[in-house]
Amino acid sequence: MPRSPKSGFILLISLFLVFSCRSSPAPVQPEPASSGAHPPAATVQPVGPEISEERQPFTPELISQDEKRNTLVDVEKFIEELNQVIQRKEFETWLTYLTPEYIEYYSSPETLAEWSNFPVLKRQGIMLKTLKDFFFYIVYPSRGSAKPDDIEYLDYMLIKVMAINSKGERVVLYYLEKVGNSWKMTVRR
Known about the structure:
The chain is an alpha+beta fold. It has a domain of 127 residues. It is 42% helix and 15% strand. The chain contains seven helices and four strands, in the order αααααααββββ. It has a four-stranded antiparallel sheet. The chain is globular.
């Protein structure tokens, strides 16, 4: 029996459908029994190359002039408050302005012995034995009216605060570390 053009067309469509559906559909996963909990969130796969969570190595050029200016304003306020605490000889309050590293370093017998060897203390016969001694004999006489003129970033969260003395020399007043939302005095690293 001769085939009609219509039957050839139907055969061609049938063959196309058969071959295009060769793969079986994915099985349907049963839904978990409702326990009142929210269904797990969908996992989203990143598209493109993975983004590294690591920070870039620090270079001072990464700090904008606006950021430096804003930090200097914050540091000026911090030091103004600190000066008032020092001028009132409030040792316990002063401790709240320090990092644990600062407290540990300036409480160590080795550091206190080094400071005790300074000529002005030796002439007076003063031997520093505690951090409290350091506060009253070193910090109080020398830092109660310090004013910052400039800052230098050593890292994203660590700065050197400097003043310019009467000879025009830049001298280090403090090393400050950003802890949370506030600055704290720290030791040089």
